[in-house]
Design a protein that fits this description.
single chain; mainly alpha; globular
Length: 543
């Protein structure tokens, strides 16, 4: 008999059986890894805010910042393709499979063989791409933002930021290999190094080089991202078989060799490129609006996406675990991990979205309103940020679900098809609304398109990927959305009564936190009941 939705939801909410010693050790390792990764990611995000504050202080929302942000499209695209999504989606499963084969024994080291066959070719491709982007900088600027008043400034910045094709590629390779080895500290430091370089360049060179100093910081920061990880990867490769692995029952030997098929690589890269094209569409549409429109979109997006970035840290840590479980044939273990990740990431991002919506004007004023960034810029950026926030759950689900699809290390076109439909929706809605609603129409198109993609990805999961219980997950997410909506309204009512922006952010965020938890408990939304059961169970066990 097929289980009904109530039975499935109960199964999803039921805590796992009492942990064995091996499972407790594994869970403790993942918890520590997630904590360290989250802490370093928060540090990188805070430095990113300082970077944006420095840009706003020195240049405001002007033609200079618009020119730099057009050039910044390249490192943003490179980060998605080479660090965050693209390379990781096929390198982590490839390295996980190589590590699984190494654990089975045999002649040679599959991990070192994978590095020997993949790294030199990839490095050559990265270098050739970087040189090509430097040469094509004028055409790139004309394509991305044909309405810029000073295209030459954007061309100069683009030639500096084009080096990210090489440096980000090498950094992404190191990150994927280290995460597959259960080494998370060095990969989590890359954005700390990157943003530090940009901030230092702005403070030291902005007086002489203007906005080009930020582009120079991007070039230097890319080099630092590689240097932050290369020693750790070198140590892992020298150690050979000494790896940290999650204990697992004995499994039969895997016959499939740890190769990276061309079809898998293309599906992953095209998906990541299609996802990042949302930003390209935004910049293209905003280039025809008054000066500062691209800057308002950028500042709003960077702040609004912080909850999403933090929520996806859990999926970043568990992605190698899911890939290794699938490589070992443990389908149920992978399914349970993906379901919990989706619900927990949804919980974190909805809480953050509610807080951002509640205190948006005060938050932007507190972060950016100084120097050349005035009250008018604050109002425009805060309004755009609230619209962006409506798509945060969609962005989070796309990031988490894409990892579930690509962790199987097999060719699948569903993510690319789903993302293509979402991009078409973004472009269509954006073209129809930009003339009437300006930047608000662009932000709304982004939110709508990514939610369409998330729905298609959730619908497409099945036996060929990770067969999650979709109805149960959607039910839990719907309860979290309702709790966040009510919490955002209550927080906004409190924040608008505060005299200073700092008090508004603190009071609004506090009301959102308390109300979100209480409403979530009342609705029995995950993860609150399971968290309470886990805590009380551990207390009883300790006694």
């Amino acid at each position: 008999m097929t289980a009904g939705p109530e039975t499935v939801a109960t199964d999803l909410a039921t805590p796992p059986p009492p942990p064995t010693k091996d499972r407790t050790s594994s869970g403790s390792f993942l918890a520590k890894a997630a904590l360290v990764t989250a802490a370093l990611s928060v540090a990188g995000s805070l430095l990113g805010l300082v970077r944006d504050q420095a840009l706003a202080h020195y240049f405001g929302a002007s033609t200079d910042t618009d020119a730099f942000l057009v050039a910044w499209t390249l490192p943003e695209l490179a980060a998605t393709l080479l660090i965050e999504d693209g390379l990781a989606f096929f390198l982590v499963p490839a390295f996980s499979l190589a590590l699984a084969r190494r654990a089975d024994g045999g002649d040679g080291d599959p991990v070192r063989a994978l590095v020997r066959t993949s790294l030199p070719r990839m490095a050559l491709c990265f270098a050739v791409t970087a040189l090509g982007l430097v040469a094509a900088a004028p055409y790139i600027v004309a394509l991305l933002a044909p309405g810029l008043p000073d295209p030459q400034l954007a061309v100069d910045c683009t030639r500096l930021t084009a080096t990210s094709a090489l440096t980000f590629g090498l950094a992404g390779y190191c990150s994927a290999a280290l995460r597959a080895h259960r080494r998370f500290v060095a990969p989590a430091t890359v954005y700390v190094a990157y943003n530090t370089a940009i901030i230092v360049a702005l403070f030291v060179l902005s007086g002489r080089w203007g906005i080009r100093s930020a582009a120079a910081g991007v070039a230097v920061g890319g080099v630092l991202m590689v240097l932050a990880q290369a020693p750790s990867l070198w140590r892992q490769l020298r150690r050979g078989g000494r790896t940290v692995s999650i204990p697992r029952p004995a499994q039969p030997a895997k016959p499939t060799p740890p190769t990276m098929q061309t079809a898998i690589i293309w599906t992953v890269l095209l998906f990541a490129l299609c996802r990042q094209s949302q930003v390209l569409i935004e910049r293209f549409l905003a280039s025809s609006l008054p000066a500062g429109a691209i800057s308002h979109l950028n500042y709003a997006q960077k702040v609004a996406q912080m909850p999403m970035v933090l929520s996806l840290m859990l999926c970043t840590v568990t992605f190698p675990v899911v890939a290794r479980a699938l490589a070992d044939g443990e389908i149920e273990r992978a399914r349970d991990r993906v379901e919990r990740d989706l619900v927990l990431a949804g919980c974190m991002v909805m809480f953050g979205a509610a807080a951002v919506i509640a205190a948006a004007p005060a938050l932007i004023e507190l972060l950016f309103q100084r120097g050349a960034f005035g009250a008018r810029d604050t109002a425009a950026t805060a309004g755009v940020m609230r619209v962006y926030t409506l798509g945060l759950l969609g962005h989070t689900m796309v990031g988490a679900l894409a990892r579930a699809y690509f962790s199987v290390a097999r060719t699948t076109w569903i993510p690319l098809f789903s993302m293509f439909i979402g991009v078409v929706a973004t472009a269509g809605i954006g073209f129809l609304t930009v003339g009437t609603w300006g930047v608000y129409g662009i932000a709304g198109a982004n939110a709508t398109g990514i939610c369409v993609t998330a729905a298609l990805l959730l619908r497409g999961l099945g036996p060929d990927t990770v067969p999650i219980r979709t109805r149960a997950v959607v039910g839990q997410l719907a309860r979290l959305v309702l709790a966040a909506a009510v919490a955002a309204v209550l927080g906004a009512l409190v924040a608008r009564r505060m005299a200073s922006p700092l008090l508004a952010v603190v009071a609004g965020g506090g009301v959102v936190a308390v109300s979100f938890v209480l409403i979530g408990l009342a609705l029995r939304a995950q993860p609150w009941p399971s968290v309470l059961r886990s805590v009380t169970g551990r207390l009883r066990h300790a006694r």
